[in-house]
Please model this.
Amino acid sequence: MLLNVETVSKTYPGGRPVLDQVSLTLEHGETLALTGESGSGKSTLLNLVGALDHFDSGEITVEGTSLSGLNERGRAALRRESLALVFQQFNLIPSLSVEQNLSFHARLSGRSDTAWLSHLTDRLGLAPFLSRFPEQLSGGQQQRVAIGRALATRPALLLADEPTGNLDETASAAVLDLMLELVAETGCGLLLVTHSAGIAARLDRRAHLSGGHLA
Amino acid sequence: MRRAAIACLWSHWSRHPLQLVTLLAGLALATGLWSAVQAINSEARTSYAEASAQLGVGQFDELRAASGSIPLARYVALRRAGWQLAAVLEGQLRLPGGSVDVMGVDLLSYPALPAVEETSQDDGIAPTDALLAPGLLIAGPETAQRLEAQPRLPPVSRTQNLPSGVVLTDIGTAEMLLNRRSEITRLLILPDQSAGLAPLADLAPDLMLVRAEGRSELARLTDSFHLNLTAFGLLSFAVGLFIVHGMVGLSFEQRRGMIRTLRALGLPLRDLTWLMLGELLLFALIGGLIGLVLGYGVAAALLPDVAATLRGLYGAPVDGDLALQPAWVALGLMMAVAGTFAASAQALWRLSRVPILQAQGQYAWTAQGLPALAQAGFGVLLICAGFLALVIFDDLIAGFVMLGGLLMGAALLLPPVLSLALRLGGRFARGPLEEWIWADMRAQLPGLSLALMALLLALAANIGVGTMVSSFRLTFTGWLDQRLASELYVTARDEAQGHEIERWLNTRADAVLPIRWTEVQVADQTVFLYGIIDHPTYRDNWPLIAEVPEVWDVVAEARGVLINEQMARRMDLWPGDSVELLPGWTLPVAGVYSDYGNPTGQAITALPALLERVPDLPNTRFGIRIDPAEAEDMRTALADTFALPPQAVVPQAAIKASSLAIFEKTFVVTGALNILTLGVAGFAILTSLLTLWAHRLPQLAPVWALGVRRDTLARLEILRSVALAVMTAVLALPLGLVLAWALLAIINVEAFGWRLPMHLFPLQWLVLLLLAVATAVLAALVPANRLRYLPPSDLLQVFANAR
Model:
């Protein structure tokens, strides 16, 4: 099993529980859409799976590695080596060029593969923009760089938080198509947070969060 | 409407208290250090002026003895010869809690003193009463209080007309107080002397004539010291204004949206501008007042050392206590207000051009400076203009224009040069993190450039002024070695004893160097012409700055004369030129020697040649070369054998040690200002890093999310700050050296007439580099530590913008 989330709960200080006894699983190569209203806990769950935040109780394992047993160093290593993240705001590194952004994560994890990177660059249509900087790209182009950066590491699990939320309809469709094609090509699992029922319908499975519970 | 607008503008500061504190701190630091230096300078100058007016210092020609003491018999002889002289005996009287300076004057002959006149008016005491037993001591209130607390002292009269720590009394009372019977420290030559008197040079050849204009020249030497302090104060002020500039620019930029909204709601631009001007004025006054308090504290802490330095180095009487002067407060506040508006001019100009409709860019405030190439071009232009001004006008003002152009131009050049260096450095990066660090440093440059410019100026000033002061110290040490190469100096009572001593010494000392001189007129100026014997003491020690080949042979054979730098510059005489020393005796200049601190012209020739022309040259003073270990025994033997007073046999080591100790005090003050200026620059870096913090998280969060730990990022933040500081320090080195060269070769020459040789002090640079690194580490520690312990939820906020 690639991902196992078991009875995970999370409450932010001074607030009501955001996640309450949530459980789900994901197999290698499987894609799962996580939907729900604003404030339902989708992004919180994604952050917990991404080892970006701590849960209060329960357990999350990624490729058999228990997150609750990891210290800061171990969580950072997991993010570098097994996971990849795509954010709604793209979150590219503004001081690096497109080319450097694309290879950054892969080189950080020591898994840089020039041929694969070149393939990704072509597939994402980024070849003409390699020397540019993020601020010189459109939103759709920036998100394609973010996807390329994530998949360049050949991650076991790709976590995407509203990856098309900042894009117009045309760009959104194009970016999603590319992402799903490349995910299939890579063979990694995908956990994608979205508001859109249309996008969710294109993934293998769908889980709906409401009031901190899976519906 | 205005009240609502004011509340709206103020809401920015209440939501950004750190920015407000930083702005006020920048202003306070700028005003504080500037005011501290001004307070010290103004206190010192007030003391000089008071001393001159109250004690008659520097108003008359004087006669002094090389031994420091003039026998009473010599005074009597001169008076009998018709010379109108006033005797002065000076010394220190030890009291609990420190000593006071006693100045005993012949009240019957000494020119009228304000303190004496005040005493006679207020107390109904005639000046002559002070002559009668038990005498009378006149002192300022504080000193009078200390004197009155002592038993067995004469009555004390209080006056406002004397500096603190000085006691004025009759010379007879001073003899008793100081236990120095029949001694005189100096003789004032009163104006309106009778015609036809025998020349003083004949009557008292062993006494040195110090002209009043010469003493005022000596007083000018203190200007060099004050100039150093002023330069530091000005630079600290400029560095502080960099902080103000950055903070005001940031606050204006962050309030762009608010400004547009206020205008859209109907507040006229003119009203808005006036409100913001009022806001700046308020901050300037508050920051200025805090700065004045700070400056007062710094000045009060440094003034005792400065006073001791000036007293010791130049004999300048400076009060060690600081008085709060209204003019100083007013000037400090004016500087704070003027500085604030100067530093805010760009932001105010931008405000006047903010269109109501314009999208707000996240980094607009950093990106709106000059484009890098234009900035570099402007910097080069400023430097060139400065040097051009120097070439065209060639005076002191041009020197300062050159320095201003150089410093401002270099500061403007810094960001483009750093950017270029970072771009080149990035090419050698191997891993992705290295690549990111180089690129990230470049990206951060616009936000940090003002702080780095401030650091550049602070470091360059430290190197420049430090090099000047240390060169000054070396020159002074060299000057002491030159003047005091002999281990002992002895002054005989008269010619006969001089011959006896010389004979006695010939078999006991390694060498006896006669000190024989006469006063000559060269081009209507008084020059002291010395005759020396040919001896390695001179060949090895004399610091020549220009010379002909085989210069010492030329001098020894009387084929040339050495002159001091003052004479060379004043009369434009250099090796190869000829100088008429005496009627019919003209010699070519064989060399020029540095003669720091001597206000008068001086020349040196071979003693036999001088004796041929001036045969009756007195022979009462000698330098004695001897094994230093035997100097003390020799001193005792000389004093015992010839019944010489202690002042007549002076050991070189003691004079050198006390002179150098005084100099070290100067360095304490310079060192303190060095640290304070660097501290201000460090504060500028800290404030820049803290204000950049809000922009920093979105850049760091993705790197963290990709698997770089927070502690690694925190360490990299420190590394980035250190790397930029080191690069700035490396660039500050050549700038500091050019600054030192300009101070030594241009400013000093234009201001004081002598050029100091420039020495290099690599160890000082290393210390400064370490200080710069420490400054950068300290400045980066706060944001780095904040990052190290930042909760992941804060970092996650970056990714949660749209939800």
Q: What stands out?
A: The mean pLDDT of chain B is 80. The interface with chain A takes residues 431-433, 435-436, 439-440, 442-443, 698-699, 701-703, 705-711, 792-793, 795-796, 798-803 of chain B (CB under 8 Å). Chain B has 25 helices and 21 strands.
